[in-house]
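Researcher: Structure prediction, please.
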Amino acid sequence: MHVLDLPYNVLDDIIGYLNQSDLVSLGRTNRVFHSKVNQMLYKRIMILDSEGHNDQYSLLDVRNVGPFARELTKENFQLIEKVVIHTQSNLIEYNYKELYDSFIRQWEKVKHPIYFVNLDINNLRKYQSFNNYISQESIQYSENEDEQSFEVDVQDTILNNLTNWIAFDINELISLPYNPSLRHLNLFIEQSFLLDPIERLNRNVLRNMENLKALYLNSPKSTSVFIKTFSGKVKLNLRKLSLSSSHTFKADSLLTFREVSQLVNFQDLEELELKINCTNHYCPNECMVQFFRDWFSSCRDPLALAKLVLINFKSNPHTDNLLQFNKLIENELFCSMISNLREIYLNINDLTKLTLDNKSSLNYNKFFKNLSRLPNLAKIVIPDFFNDWVVNLPRLFNKRTNFFDLLVNQCDCKVCNDTRLTFNKLSTLDSKNHFQHDFDNFTNSSADSSSIQIDTTSESNLKFLNYIVRKLKQQFIYLNQNLYSINSILNSNDRPLLINRDLDQFKNLFLHSCLLNLIKLFKIHIPSLRSINLGGIQYLVPN
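Model: Predicted structure follows.
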């Protein structure tokens, strides 16, 4: 039997195991494979300016955007479902005009809905969003002589091929035409003079809001202005919602469940992201805690919520703010009302530098007890694990030692001894080089002794540990790029991951020394757990 005689679904399964370069090679062999490979390569495209990894996307170097745009045809263009631009215009400035124009030319030939998002915030600030660019290039205006006004002819407009829009002020959002394809909206307001709407609400914008399935309010101003503008005018039936809020001394900065629930149906919401903090020293009701109390007390039946993301907005280090987050995690957050939850993402305090004097009030036992109320929980991600979380491990395991020692010196296997030797040598080298982290000429070696230890009281060793922790966190590219502007953890599957193999030996050292025991405790309290990420250490939990 020839491979081409296999059923198409079998061929699809085979092709699905190939990496991007192998797919390109396979596509050159014959017409059948060429067609099949193109369907995979063009379906989801991610444009990058640095290293990254994502199994669901074809990765395109930003330097090759021009050739890609010029080679688009009506046929391969219709294979595209998603395009994500994940670059950072800083010293190098990127321009996507050629790509935009190529897409517009194809849309002039054929209607084809595409999810297209540009996450390069500096590019967006200097130029404009794709939907704004399209609206200026393609929408036709016709004068109504009787009423002496301009009407927008939106039928068959190119803008309607976009399933997502980005708006930078409320008036821009209100003035956009009706788009029956619109499902995702990003609103990022950062200029104070754009807060109040000048445009009157019209049927077009209300219809657009009614069609939304995902709404991302990516700044506190975006949240407050959106609620003020649309509350009482429309009820949103969303699947995804991202809210940003920072409670300050300003009267309009307080976010309450009551005002949001008047606008959004929370009962059917599947994914929620809260990027919040409270910097009001005199907050009378612990506003973040009260938000969840009001929410859960309004429920009669368990919510549909499957993914919850809780982020300390801009990692505010204020003590009262962190205490509210701890109270949420230990007492308020996890209850029977969210028993359908499958994923949790917690990033509370990621600015702390590790020292042996670090303190944390976080109580693991209370946390585990609450997690046990979630029978469907399968995934936990804690990027800031090596902050408040790690320093409490000795208390959890009833060990009379510091967290550093617990993290590196508890396993005597040959591999861990070799890794500790490497750690010591790298730390010494780094110290001599004034902590420049230049390890290009370093080579690993095996330990002669079976009892190599790391001096956890050494300042240089602690600095090297902080370097490793920082590198581990940098694997969350989406956490470090534009999280407080136009990025969202809800779409982390559509973002690149950085896989740093140089860290593997240290990941294994931490796991062997104590983190596997911690994961076992997680598994005892959450039998459904399948995946956990602790500060960049990803671990697939066996059944």
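Model: The longest helix spans residues 504-525.
Researcher: Thanks, that helps.
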